[in-house]
Fold each of these.
Amino acid sequence: MKNTITENNRMKGHTAALVTILIWGTTFISTKVLLNDFQPVEILFFRFVLGFTALLIVRPRILKGTDLRQELAFAAAGLCGVCLYYLMENIALTYTMASNVGVIVSAAPLFTAIMSQIFLAQEEKLKGRFFIGFAVSMAGIALISFNGSALELNPVGDVLALLAAFVWACYSILTRKISEYGYDTILTTRRIFFYGILLMVPALFLFDFRFGPERFADPAALMNLLFLGLGASALCFVTWNSAVKYLGAVRTSVYIYMVPVITVVTSFLILHEPFTWMTAAGTVLTMAGLFLSQKKDRR
């Protein structure tokens, strides 16, 4: 009976992670549309405010019974996963190529794996296949991202992208810890959003934020904001946190390898961008690395 329950939870975790990545991999289309009228920090702020509102409507109860240590964990998760990660990634894109950022940020699972061995005693010990899978996936992601173009290093942008990957690993570790508190996942995600939005406010003044309500009258802008707020934020952060709860921080984080693959497939189907042999080879390598990293020992 115990094995059945464990297997059911594992399947729930893999399903939640897959749903999350399928949506996150398509958000670039909505972001591209919104960047015509919105600054990156404006998109970020509006999407998480929408996400927080949606979670409040879905679960109007208040999260009670937390202590100071737990509140600090929620605040740290909000700072890392909602505020710093997206700000660093967006700023990095202004200094270096998008392909560089895509490859470097995909290194988040490696940071997560290393940190989990230090801070999470309940996580599985890493096997050699995890690192082999990481190398294979990164090779595939590099093929997808660069696709024949030359590698151009930019210290400022590349370091910011690397810090973004590290910050996301911190978020994964924190959500794993938060899952042990036993609270409702929607309530804990909403609390994380609250702190993330609160800590984001100082950045709004640095990046010349404006409300601009007339922009919301555009149906395309409104629909894409709703997709990012309700789908990519409210739904996906709940499903991602659920996946971390069931699978652990490391096994969930390797699904990040799939983001470039989903992005390429979506751009081919929707934007009719070319699908080259390097893209195909990169997709195969990335998926092979993902499955290799997820593979468990047979007893």
Note: Residues 1-5 have pLDDT under 50 and may be disordered.
Amino acid sequence: MKTSWRSASLVASAAAVLALTTACGQDGGGATGSRNVGATAAPGDVGDIGAGAGEGLGTGAGAQASANALEPAGKLSVSTDAQIGELVTDGAGRTLYRFDEDTAKPPETTCEGDCATAWPPVPADDALAGEGVDKALLGEVARPDGTKQLTIGGWPAYRYAKDAAAGDVRGQGVGGKWYALAADGKKAKADDLPALSTRDDPKLGEIVVDLNGMTVYRFMKDEAWPEPVSACTGECLEEWPVVAPVEPDDTEGVVAKDLMTFTRPDGAEQQTVDCWPVYTFAGDRKPGDTNGQGVGGTWYAVSPDGKPVGALKK
């Protein structure tokens, strides 16, 4: 992926997406457009990602983590994890993370209360740029309690309470919203993958993955024709985050036909493959995980042509 290329191709890509959005309706013989309906997934369909896997998905009502109890940032440096790639660590070697619900332009933190207990904010006061870290990308943001939080590339930085030792990356992918920080403030990832691509899984065969190498899934209660409809709403989305829209040309190995987006009931845009809505799984902690496969008998990895891998035919 090349940022400059992406910027230059926005107009062309937008036109391509517009053209593709009629495909599902044409193939199904019905009218085109988005429908904002769909039943909420039953509890058994959501899946069990284990205790703590969904921590810090938003603000909480618990006591605010005390800045006095937080460890200083110290000298930041870049470390390499075999699965994730290059990421930023603090002076003690602990992984630093970013939260998708925060913003970088302008920097803003949304993790408070219980969230800040599970994801302690990194103090900005003593942060130093070590090897591989650009001092110019370090900054700070004022938290609601008046303390200053470190930012990297504009993104507020956190640690994860369950990382017990230097080098731990247990926070990677938690809730589908927490990711290790790269030195430029982006999400750390092992390879410069396209927005959607495929990999050969030893058990499932060729399956679709996102730009972080995380497995992409389909929900069998969704609809594709005549228009995409997602049945995963509410709490379901905390464990099955939607795949955001991708540029059609920013894919590799995925069948381009009916690669489109649609508008969800909450107004958000979601990507589809073969017109079927696609998701990732909060229980997948690192690239290569397929813990969502077969959950509830309704969630399955996606083949390059959009079919659910391993689902029983009706």
Note: Residues 10-20 form the longest helix (11 residues).
